[in-house]
Each structure stands twice: as C-alpha cells, then as structure tokens.
Specification:
Elements (H helix, E strand, L loop, with lengths): L5 H8 L6 H18 L8 H4 L5 H24 L3 E2 L5 E2 L3 E5 L4 E4 L7 H14 L21
Antiparallel strand pairs: 1-2, 3-4
Length: 148
C-alpha cells in the first residue's frame, strides 16, 4: 500500500535527495516499517484495517512515509550503496581486505539490526497519538477492540 506519493516527498524535502525512482523503490519498505509499528499483539494492522479518516491523521501518515523513505535513502548512501540506472542497488563499503586468504569485510547495512529498530522507533514517534478510522490509536499494541 502506498502511503505517500513522490509529490508529497518533494513538497516536504524539496526533492534534493532521493529522486522519483529511488522513492518508488524505497516506499514499499517504508510502508512495511510503518505497518509493523502499528500492528498489535493480535496481528491487526491498524493502517490496513481502518486508515486514519481525518485530514490531520492522513497527513501524518504521509509525512511518516516520506521521513522513512528519506532515512532509508540516507542509510543507503552511508553504506556506500550505488543506485544503477535500472533502479538496482549495488556496492557496499569495504572495511577491511586481507591478502593472505583473500578476505574482504564489508560494513553492515545501517538499515539492518540497530538501524532497523531506529526506523521502527521513528515510525512510532510519528504515528503516536494518531487515531485510525475507528478512533483507536495507531500505536496501541493491545488487541483491537471488539466490534471494530
């Protein structure tokens, strides 16, 4: 599910970073991060079950998606990734080369491990206090209220 459009990203960040191809490639991952951040213990993803129906809530979801795309794009750049013209990403930062056994060590991606946790925290921070279409806080992690 697309939670934002490239136009939203350009309006927020001036388009000076990720281009439209990179935005389109990173938006699905941003969506998955947001969905994990708003899925309760019963497995109900509030963004899918009842997206925010008020204008402020919908705007906050767009802003969150754009902020996550920007963070993912910046993480790629920190990791030394290079985007090809066809949209695929290659390359990583080499941290060590050993000549004896021909060993090469790469930097761990910033979006993995602790970086992934930081992105989920960013999503929760944006979406905290935002009600879904049924009035349930998006970041409420308990079972979805019966009858909703």
């Amino acid at each position: 599910m697309a939670y934002a459009a490239y136009e939203d990203y350009v309006n927020l960040y001036g388009g000076g970073e990720a281009d439209e191809a990179a935005f389109g490639r990173l938006l699905p991952e941003a969506g998955r991060i947001m969905e994990r951040a708003v899925t309760g213990v019963d497995g109900v993803c509030k963004l899918k079950a009842a997206p925010p129906s008020d204008e402020d809530g919908a705007e906050t979801v767009k802003r969150c998606a754009c902020a996550l795309v920007r963070a993912l794009w910046q993480a790629e750049r920190r990791d030394g990734c290079v985007e090809r013209l066809d949209g695929t990403v290659t390359g990583r930062v080499v941290t060590r080369i050993t000549a004896g056994q021909e060993s090469v060590t790469y930097a761990a991606p910033a979006s993995a491990g602790g970086g992934r946790r930081n992105l989920e925290d960013l999503a929760r921070e944006y979406l905290a206090g935002v009600p879904d279409g049924n009035g349930v806080n998006l970041t409420y992690m308990g079972p979805y209220p019966a009858g909703e």
